[in-house]
Design brief:
33% of the residues lie in helices and 22% in strands. By secondary structure, the protein is α/β, with parallel strands linked by helices. A 7-stranded parallel beta sheet has the order 5-6-7-8-9-10-11.
Length: 350
């Protein structure tokens, strides 16, 4: 008989993260612990961490739905979790973890055995000096791919920062991705894309707001730089293949927490392959619990591009884990332990 416990944890950013949707200072998350009632020392752990304003579920809905999961854990077919992708992600991982012995091993593959995964360096929005300092730090650490959040400050100031990168850091080989989080207007989008193209931008994520299929199709057809989509994917269900065929983006950016777990993410990967669309996987501000699971999932595939798995270093109160970022690679260090004392010795804490 399976038993479930729920734990709430507020992740605090070391440095507030600037996006076009505002500044992030903390992020509520919930952990789900699943174990057999006759052996509570062996348990699976999953993370349910929606992003307010981006996820289709809200923080206010989470507690009630997680209580329903607790009551129905031995027959989850009773519940429709379609509208709660982060809970689906957490439950899927906790059950797989328990199945594999309760050691935070979701997938047995090369990553767990020590093979690293190349990642991009994430640059948060802010004033020019703040962004340039982040960039300098990432390049000094050895990153060859940077992802910059844009769309919050004046566009030409952001262009000035990108020019500065190309000039100051002698970085012709540096791959630069930008993420607008839907901040651009359709009125002047092509002028902005032409300017970005002059700076050898690898791709731009979600240039315009979601649910503008006609305009988005035209942008993907005419843009001088590749278009990558992520927010656009979150609300799609049955029409996923239809959407991909119609829009024909150059890349999909896949966030398992926001898409409903790894089975759902793999469906997107198969659709991308079918339609000759590139893809990479990105964490969605999870703690090391969710981040480790996502990295393990990534290693199930042949990866040709840097993945977005550098978010574990953002929080002052993250959970200690075997994950380590060295240079532009993330590793799983088998000689390091998880710090899970709170999960081993706790009561229901929701």
């Amino acid at each position: 008989m399976l038993t479930t416990e729920i734990f709430n944890h507020n992740l605090n950013f070391i440095i507030p993260g600037g996006t076009s949707r505002g500044v992030l200072r903390n992020k509520p998350t919930w952990y789900i612990k699943i174990f057999n009632s006759d052996n509570p020392n062996i348990f699976g752990l999953g993370e349910c961490g929606p992003i307010e304003g981006l996820s289709i579920e809200t923080g206010d809905q989470m507690i009630n739905q997680l209580k329903k999961v607790q009551k129905s854990i031995n027959d989850l077919s009773k519940l429709d979790l379609t509208s709660f992708p982060s809970i689906r992600f957490g439950v899927e991982n906790a059950l797989n973890d328990l199945k594999n012995g309760g050691e935070r091993i979701i997938f047995q593959n090369s990553f767990i055995k020590g093979k690293p995964i190349k990642i991009n360096g994430l640059i948060w929005m802010g004033d020019k000096d703040f962004m340039l300092n982040q960039i300098k730090n990432k390049i000094e650490k050895g990153f060859s791919c940077l992802k910059l959040k844009i769309g919050s400050i004046n566009f030409m100031e952001e262009i000035s920062i990108l020019k500065n990168i190309r000039e100051k850091f002698n970085s012709d080989v540096l791959e630069i991705r930008v993420d607008a989080n839907g901040a651009f207007s359709t009125k002047n989008i092509f002028k902005k894309l032409e300017i970005l193209n002059s700076l050898k931008i690898h791709s731009i994520e979600q240039p315009i707001a979601v649910n503008q299929w006609k305009q988005l199709k035209e942008i993907c057809e005419k843009s001088p730089i590749p278009i990558a989509l992520d927010e656009e994917l979150i609300h799609l269900k049955k029409e996923r293949n239809e959407f991909t065929e119609y829009i024909s983006p150059q890349y999909l950016v896949l966030k398992p927490t926001l898409l409903g777990g790894f089975k759902e993410t793999d469906k997107w990967i198969q659709i991308a392959k079918k339609n000759n669309v590139g893809w990479w996987i990105t964490s969605a501000l999870e703690s090391n619990v969710g981040l480790s699971a996502i990295a393990q999932f990534c290693a199930n595939y042949q990866l040709s591009l840097p993945q977005g798995l550098g978010t574990g270093q953002l929080f002052s109160n993250n959970i200690s884990s075997p994950l380590e970022i060295k240079g532009e690679n993330i590793f799983y260090k088998k000689n390091r332990n998880w710090d899970l004392v709170n999960f081993k010795n706790s009561n229901d804490n929701n």
